[in-house]
Amino acid sequence: MDPPDLLDPGDDGRADGRAGEFVQSLERGLAVLRAFTPARSQLTLTEVARATGLTRAAARRFLLTLVDLGYVTNDGREFALRPRVLELGYAYLAGLTLPAVAQAHLEALVERVNESSSISVLDGDDIVYVARCPTQRILTAAIAVGTRLPADCTAMGRVLLAARPRAELDAYLARVPLVARTARTCTDSAVLRSTLERVAADGYALVDQELEDGLVSIAVPIRDAAGTVTAACNLSANALRVDGATLERDVLPDLRATTARIEHDLAAAVPSPASAPAPAPAPAAAPGEA
Fold first, then answer.
1. Label partner for 119 (CA 20 to 30 A): which of 19, 71, 204, 233?
2. Where are the CATH 1.10.10.10 domain residues in the chain?
3. What span, in angstroms and rounded, lies between the C-alpha atoms of 26 and 153?
4. How does 156-195 read in b/e, with b if 16+ C-beta sit within 10 Å?
């Protein structure tokens, strides 16, 4: 029998002095939701407990609560997410101007070069896809908006990492294990640092079969009106058909032109503070007022 799992919202064992501000039960509930993935869309109670590190009793309580709230369904044996979970990310996506502005540009680019294109942002140690236009020829079909991939072995991830301040990059390289996903994956932090320095100098990243065998990708940064790198845009292709040199020679100029158009439209969609209307002048002070 599983031991009782008392969920004290304030007791999380944190050593950073923020125990009173951290709700561990919320963290666990979100971990249960994240246990479901495209590859594991239906899970048993035991599988959820194993994926989250929770006891079966705790996992069961979270799952049944999510069922009652309409986020999860249960057929008597397996659990699965319900469409209502989309509400949790909709507010972020709806308020994010980038995907709406970029989508038409991605579609035009893909039509010209006949390769898949995506845009992602950095979230923790991963990249998250926020816009995408695939082709039928892309090697991996499971990538969609919301997909998370490791930053270190992806072209967009390297563009975003290369733009981070030195202290943040140092912390990242010290913290994140570099996992060999293929025989070509860089697993040496010193080599990766050198690669990122070159990416920052060149203004683009090329990753040849480091994330997945047969997949080559090239990416460039997307900057806001202040020149800060906020996202990255890529083109991905089958390495058996297109090599890295071809992407650099034939595709990179078009990719850069596309991101320039995206940046131009973003600047128009999100006026800078300097272009905002000036506040109305304050009324004149009455006699005797300071």
1. 71
2. 19-83
3. 31
4. bbbbbbbbbeeeebeebbeebebeebeeebbeebeebbeb
- What the block records as the tokens of 246 is 């071809």
First CA to last CA distance, the chain: 73
Dihedral of the alpha carbons of 19, 25, 26, 28, in degrees to the nearest 10: 110
Segments of 96-250 assigned E as strands:
116-123, 126-133, 148-150, 205-208, 215-223, 229-238
Contact 169, 193 (CB under 8 A): yes
Tell me which amino acid residue 221 is: P
The boundaries of every CATH 3.30.450.40 domain in the chain are 96-270
- Cβ neighbours of 97 (radius 10 Å): 12
What whole-number distance in Å separates Cα of residue 127 and Cα of residue 104? 22
When computed from its CA atoms, the radius of gyration of the chain, rounded to whole angstroms, is: 23
Q: Which CATH superfamily is domain 96-270 in?
A: GAF domain (3.30.450.40)
Q: In this structure, is the dihedral angle defined by the CA atoms of residues 206, 176, 224 and 130, taken in order, positive or negative?
A: positive
- pTM tops 0.85, yes or no: no
Tens digit of each residue's pLDDT (9 = 90 or more) over 232-277: 999 999 898 889 999 999 999 999 999 999 998 888 765 444 433 4
Amino acid at site 13? G
Long-range CB contacts (within 8 A, 24+) of 85-90: 85/33, 88/33, 89/146
Of residues 118, 124, 125, 126, the one with CA closest to residue 98: 118
Considering the domain delimited by 19-83, tell me its CATH architecture: Orthogonal Bundle (1.10)
Q: Which residues of the chain have pLDDT under 70?
A: 1-20, 90-96, 136-142, 269-290
